[in-house]
User: What shape does this take?
Amino acid sequence: MSDATEGADLSRAGSDIPAGKNLAVRGVFFACALVTVLTTFGIVVVLVDGALGFFREETLFELLASVGAGILAGSPTEALEALRSGLAARVTVTEFLFGTEWSPIIRPRSYGILPLVWGTMIIVVGSALIALPVGTATAIYLSEYADRRVRKVIKPTLEILAGIPTIVYGFFALSFITPLIQRFFPETGTFNAAAGAIVVGIMIIPMVSSLSEDAMSAVPDDLRNAAYGLGATKFEVSTDVVFPASLSGVIASYILAISRAIGETMAVTLAVGMQPNVTLNPLEPAQTMTAYMVQIGISDVSVGSIGYQSLFAVGLLLFAMTLAMNLLSLQIKGRYQEEYQ
Amino acid sequence: MTGSSSSSDDARTDGDELARPEGGDHVRTDGGEHANPFATVGDDIERKQRIGRVFVAVCAASTLVGIVALVVLLADVLLEAWGWVTLEFLTYPPSRFIENYYPGGRGAGIFPALVGSILLIALTAVFTMVLGVGAAIYLEEYAAESRLKGFIEANISNLAGVPSIVYGLLGLAVFVRFAGFGESLLAGALTLTLLILPIVIVSSQEALRAVPDSQRHAAYGVGATDWEVVRDVVLPSALPGIMTGTILSLSRAIGETAPLIMVGAATSMFRAPIEDVSGIPVPDLFGPFAAMPMQIFDWARLPEGDFQHVAAAGIVVLLSILLLMNATAILIRNKYETR
Assistant: This one.
C-alpha cells in the first residue's frame, strides 16, 4: 500500500506537506480512540482501588505509597509492616457478599450487601415481568403484522420512552403510579418496589421491542414462505417459525434490558426509596444498589471513611453484574449473526 | 404424525370451549376422526384463525401499552406543571419555601440549574466532538482491520452498557479528586463526555462509513494525503450525520442525574456558574454548579405536596430543551439526507 503510493508520488516531490505530518495526525486520532480503552481501564482501577479501601485498611494506591515509602527508606521490615497494616481486614468479602444486614454508616454497622442485591433483584424481576412479554409481543406485531407505515411511526415513538430522562420516570412513579397503586392497596407507602418495577419496566420496553424487532425482521422470508406452503397460519408462522428463528437476538435484547434495569438509578431511587429491606412484598419500600450509591452521594460522608469506600465496593459489584450481562448478550448475538450468513 | 394428531385433539377441546354455539358440527367431525384424518382440517383452521385473531389483538394491545404509557407520562407531567412554568420560574433561583414559587410570590425557579445544564452540555459537546470524531476517524479511516481495532470496538460496545452511575464513580475518583478539579462544572462535563463517548463514536463511525469510497479515491487520485482526504473530503460530507448523532447523544447527557450526583453537583445553587471577568460573563469552570436533573431530583424529594408541581415544571423545562435538541438533530438529518 505505502509502496504503491510512494511509487506514484512523483508530483509531491516538491510539496509543502511535511512527511511526518500524516503520522502525527494519525497519532492524534489514535489517542482519541485510546481514550475509550483508558476509560475502561480507569473504571476497573478506580473501582478495585476504592473497593480495596473498603475491604482493607488502605486503598490500592495508599498501600503502594506506604509500601513504597518503606522501600525508599531502605527498610524492608518497615515496608512489610506497612503492607501488613494496610492489608488488615476491615470488612471480609464473605460478610459483604453473604451478610444480610446493610448499615455501613449507622451504628451498629454491618456490611452485608444482600438487602441491596435483593432490592435490585425485585426491580429486575418486576420490570422484566412487564417489559419482556410486552416488548416481545410488540416486536412480533411490528415485525409480522403491522403495516410498514405503522411500523415507521410506532417504532420511533416507542423509542422516545428510552430517551426520556430516568429522573422523569421517578417523578412519574411518585406522582402517578404510586397513587394509582394506593387506590387499590391503601396500605401502600409513598415508596414501594412495585411502582419502581413498573416504571423501569416501561422504560425498558423499547429496548426489548426494538432489538427483538430487528432480530425478527432479519429472519429470511424463505422460512416464512416455506411454513405458509406447509399450510401454517400467520399465527403459527409468527410463533413457531419467526420467534424461534430469532430467539438468540430476542434473548440478547432481554439480557440488555435486564442489564439496564440493574443499573437503573434515579427512577428507583425516587420510587422505591432508601430503606434496605429483604421482603417479597412489592408494596414495601426497599433500596437498590444504585439507590444506596445515590444516598451516599447526596450525604456528607468524608472521603476515605468506610461509607465513602463502600460506594466503590457496591459499584464494583454493580459493574461486574452488568458487564457479565453485556458480555453474555454479545456472545448470544454473535452466534445468531452466524446463522444466516 | 402422532404429534400432530395429539395437538389437534387439544385443539378441539379448546375449540369446543371457545365456540359452544357450533357444538353440533364438532360432534360430527369428532365422529369422523378415525375414518378420515382430514375431516378436522377445516375445523382446525377455524380454531387457528380464532387463536390468530386473539394473538394479533394481544400483540397490538401490547404495542399500545408502550404508547399509552408514553402519553400518560407526558400528560401527567404537563398536568402537574400546568400554571407553574412562568417567566419567574425560568429566571429566579430555587427556594426552600414553597410560597416563593406561587404566582405573586417573591419568585423562585430553575435559573441557576438551567444555565448550569446549558454550560455543562456546551462543554460536553466540545469534548465529545473532538474525542468522538477523532476516535471514529481513527477507526474508520486509519485503522487496518486488525486485532487492535477489534479490541477497541468491542471495548466501546461494552462501555455503552456500563451503568451511568459507575461513570459517576470514575469521575469522582479521577476528575474530582485525582486531577483536583473539585466538584466543578469541568469535572461534570468530563464525566458526561466519557459517558456518551461510546454512542458518539458509533454514530460518527456510521456517518463516516456512509461517505462513498469513490470520493476518497478521487481525492487520492489528485494527490491528496490521508489527512487531506479526511479533512477536505470525508469530514465535510459526513458532518451532518456526525452532528445528528452527537446532538442525540448530548440530549441523553442533559438528562443524566446519577453521574452528576456522584461528582457532587450542588443541589441548591442560588447563582448560575458564571463569573464576571472585567465585565464579561465567563463560565466558571472550576466552581460549583447546579444542573436541571439534580434540581428536579431535589424538588421531587421534598415532602410538601406543592413541590411536586415545581418538580413537574422543572421537568417541562428539561423536556422542552430535550425536544429542541432532538428537533435540531432531525432537521439536520432531513436536510442532508437527500443523497
Chain A touches chain B through 92 residues (CB under 8 Å). The longest helix of chain A spans residues 21-55. The beta strands of chain A are 102-103, 110-111. Confidence is low (pLDDT under 50) at residues 1-14 of chain A.
